[in-house]
Design a protein that fits this description.
By secondary structure, the protein is of the alpha/beta class. The protein is built from 9 helices and 11 strands. It folds into 2 domains: 86 residues, Leucine Dehydrogenase, chain A, domain 1 (Rossmann fold); 124 residues, Rossmann fold. Strand 9 and strand 10 form a beta hairpin. Bound molecules: NADPH dihydro-nicotinamide-adenine-dinucleotide phosphate.
Length: 287
């Protein structure tokens, strides 16, 4: 069987192109560009790279962005104060607090302080709840939302398919399962306590691997013709790999996302997508 690659870089480029066009139209009507405000507390090197990449991606599509750098010693009250100021600033469309936060800051309290209408990471309980009840005004967690875009734009039917999500984190596994269910998939969620994972995988038409273990899965575990979405991303001796051993899947599965170049590029594209949606919602609220 020929295994097709799902090219996340290209799909992310397509999405950015659509968003750029939308922003160009708003600008032509005399409206300001949407603006993403990113707060980074401390100087975690990986977080600095992510934040720079996000700012760069905003620039590509004509979106304004600002990065607010705060020292690692910032108190919770100071951080909450900054968030409140951004919540009240009408020029700010989206607010993102880069995780992880330095020790001593209560992540859950901080994330709940963001106005749900500006919560472009989709982590606020209001957005999680809306997404759970199928309210399409929800801002949805970027990585799983990106996976749905990849499936749909590759012409892969979700309806009626057996979908197995391995991983149940709040930012990937759980929202992934909710989105697949909303698309009429028959969804099973597996995790570290799951018994008979192999047996469950053998029945899956679509597998989303999001467990955070390098090359944990291999081709023999999947059904012939399955679609494999690899969310994992790991720096290893021979480069970067996912949760799935890519080579062992070739010739066995119908579609697979490479790592790098698969789900990774989609996450930032969906952050931009959420910011554009938040802008659109704010605009229609003003009408
Ligand atoms: P977490 O560590 O928060 O969650 C991992 C999940 O996998 C948990 O639910 C855990 O189960 C489950 N798990 C761990 N080991 C096993 C196992 N042996 N069998 C079955 N289930 C297992 O990770 P995240 O969800 O945040 O991220 C998952 C992966 O995706 C990571 O590699 C991360 O780097 C990557 N990632 C990539 C992104 C991208 O843009 N491409 C964005 C976000 C994440 P339990 O709940 O029982 O502990």
């Amino acid at each position: 069987m020929e295994t097709k690659l799902i090219d996340g870089k290209q799909i992310a480029r397509d999405i950015r192109g659509e968003l750029k066009q939308q922003i160009r139209e708003w600008r032509a009507q005399g409206l300001p560009a949407p603006k993403l405000s990113v707060i980074l507390v401390g100087e975690d090197p990986a977080s600095c790279i992510y934040v720079n990449n996000k700012a760069k991606a905003c620039g590509w599509i004509g979106m304004d962005s600002e990065t607010i750098l705060l020292p690692a010693e910032t108190t919770e009250e100071e951080l909450l104060g900054r968030i409140q100021t951004l919540n009240e600033d009408p020029s700010v469309t989206g607010i993102l607090v880069q995780l992880p936060l330095p020790r001593g800051l209560d992540e859950s309290r901080i994330l709940r302080a963001i106005d749900p209408a500006k919560d472009v990471d989709g982590f606020h309980p209001v957005n999680v709840g809306k997404s759970a009840i199928g309210d399409d005004t929800a801002l949805v967690s970027c990585t799983p939302a990106g996976v749905i875009q990849m499936l749909e734009r590759s012409g892969i039917e979700i309806r009626g398919k057996r979908c197995v999500v391995v991983g149940r984190s709040n930012i990937v596994g759980k929202p992934m399962a909710r989105l697949l269910l909303a698309k009429d998939g028959t969804v099973t969620v597996c995790h570290s306590k799951t018994l008979d994972l192999d047996q469950i995988l053998q029945e899956a038409d679509i597998v989303v691997a999001a467990i955070g273990r390098p090359r944990f899965f291999n081709g023999t575990q999947f059904k012939e013709g399955a679609v494999i979405i690899d969310v994992g991303i790991h720096r290893v001796e021979d480069g970067v790999c996912g949760d799935v051993d890519f080579d062992s899947c070739l010739g066995k599965v119908s579609y697979i996302t490479p790592v790098p170049g698969g789900v990774g590029p989609m996450t930032i594209a969906m952050l931009l997508y959420n910011t554009v949606r938040a802008y659109q919602a704010a605009l229609s609220g003003q009408e």
